[in-house]
Amino acid sequence: MSKMAFTQALATAHILQLVGPKENAHYTELNPLLASSGISIPKIPDSAKAKPGWTWRHSASYSAHWNDLNEERIKSLAALGAYNCSVGLQSGNYAIAALVVKLKNCVRAFQAAIDEHPMYWHFHEALGDWYYRINEKEKAVLCYWEAMKFDPKKPASCAIDYWSLVSQLKKSEGDIEGAVEALRTGVSLVPEKDSWIYWKRIADIYRELKDWENLKYLYREAIEKTPNHCKDYWRELASTYDRTLDWVGKMETYFGAIMRDPENTEKYAQDLRSMARDFKDLQLLEPALLILQNGINRHPDEADKYKKEMADCYMGARKWRTAADLYESIRSGPNAHDREFAYLNYDLGHAYLGLGDTTRALAAYQEKRMERLTAGDISGNSGDAAYVHMIDGDFNIAISQIKADITGNLKYYPNGPQDWYKASEFLETHGNLGVCYEAIGRMEEARASFQSAADMFAKFIPKLEPFVHTDNNTPYHRSTARTLLEYGLILENVGRIEEARRIYEGATHRYERTTFVGDDEPLQWENEQVTLALQRVNSLEPRPDMPSLLEEIGGPRLELRLCLRYRTNWYAYEHWRAPRFRQGRSGYPAMMLKDTVSH
Question: Are 43 and 14 within 8 A, CB to CB?
Fold first, then answer.
């Protein structure tokens, strides 16, 4: 026997053994060529053997991958192994190989095998899969039923296929109750850990019908019947309340889950805080604060995390004092050094800056700056502290810190920023350096800083063109409009008026697309600024003066910079009037405004 022939015969043996009805099928019964060769066959490793609970699909898929099966290959191996279609086991295993490569003659081979071995469940199951594949579902159901009768495993390998097909047939006849009942029968026959697929398919029926009330009832039932595997059902129940815009029901679902499923408490708490952030992003503070206050009261183990989100809500609403008090309570507590509060000093500095308390703001910023320097991070550590010095009129100190930031950034980005986000930071940093030089009368250095910012940012502009999108799927981001406005102001400052006009036009279009009915004073002010900027560059000589780029305590420019850190980045699609955000449908869309108030 040649080495090649032996290899091919051994491949045949692998196929035949892997899909045999028992774990230890005999080579000699299935492959006469090997039996006559007198060659000792090495034991197939356990990883390649059929295991309890396996179905033919696992075995045949393994064989198909291992041998790269195709029709010619099967015929060649069958001839090499002296395949005899009158031998039931050989016929059945040939049929499974034919099924893998989608040959119609597998039906005849399966029937020949079943004639001799009617109790071999895996032949019935595989034939059922063929009928399912060609959409003859009634025949598939009959085959699966026969397989279930003889399969010693409980449940049988094809049980889910059988009950799912019965459910599909009932549903196609308009019998929704019967379709659901078929799957419920499947639930009753499997251990708790294996029932999830049945619950999921029942849920799919109700979801397709948009029958949200029955879907809620189903998930509650699943939670009661699978107490050890109910995490996904709690979250799906919450999601169903979300679909009906019942945010109170969603909130209560998560708190119920926290009480009854302690192993997954952290995940539910994260979902609650995410839910509150969605409302915060819409500037719907009442429901956001209600969720977070409930978290503090009903889930005290993570009270500080809820307080942090609550403080962020107040920052977004420009309620600086309340936010500062909450941040201070966390900083003075036992969890202050937890990873979740790594940037708490920055938050506290922003709150004090909003209050006009530049001394405390600077102290908070400097404390965080020292932490980062100690950790070896020399990039971008001084920006917030430099803002405070600018506001206080200490421009020389601000210049020193801004230039230190620029030097530190060059260490990490020697060729300049590589993405839009970092480029926006560089634009702001160089722009602020120009403002500082301008304030102390060093106009040449100021112009050089503005020019450097403009030149550095220019290479990112072609990526934004055209400013008006023609498709429905490209989003418009408010943050992009905001950066374009700042870039336009710098271009205007250095006299590049035509470039500034084009940038303002792009910013105007983006502001129009992302203007929200709930915009408050800072956002309205910002929208007005881009309109005024466009009017200014389009006006006849002499042009009106540009607004000052220096931020002031209580001024809209500073308030906007502080509160926007705690709000969403609004974005909209061309044919969607209300903005979408935070993964679109998974967050709360703007249509919740009226519904939420009614709660």
Answer: no
Residue spans of alpha helices (H) in 515-555:
521-538
Q: How many CB atoms are located within 10 Å of the residue 299 CB?
A: 19
The 10 Å CB-count burial string (b at 16+, else e) for 41-74 is beebeeeebbeeebbbbebbebbbeebebeeebb
Give the pLDDT band of residue 13 (cuts 50, 70, 90). very low
Token digits of residue 580? 């979408």
Token couple for 469: 């999108």
φ, ψ (nearest 5 deg) of residue 477:
-105, 135
C-alpha distances out from residue 318 to 286, 300, 567, Å: 15, 26, 11
Q: Which two tokens stand for residue 554?
A: 């209580």
Q: Which residues, 6+ apart, have CB-to-CB distance to 404 below 8 Å?
A: 378, 381, 382
C-beta separation of 526 from 473 below 8 A: no
Helix (H) and strand (E) counts in the chain: 30, 2
The band of 491, judged by pLDDT with boundaries at 50, 70 and 90, is very high
Bridge partners, 476 (sequence order): 572
Residue-range domain boundaries for the chain: 460-598
Q: How many CB atoms lie within 10 A of CB 140?
A: 24
Helix 88-100, helix 71-80: angle, nearest 10: 160
* Tokens (6 digits) for 41: 């066959």
- Contact at 8 Å (CB) between 167 and 183? yes
For the entire predicted model, the pTM comes to: 0.75
Segment 367-407, tens digit of pLDDT: 887 777 776 665 555 788 898 999 999 999 999 999 988 88
Q: How far apart (Å, rounded) are the C-alpha atoms in residues 546 and 434?
A: 15
Q: Which amino acid is residue 86, in one-letter code?
A: S
Q: Give the burial string for 537-548 (b: 16+ CB within 10 Å, else e).
A: beeeeeeeeeee
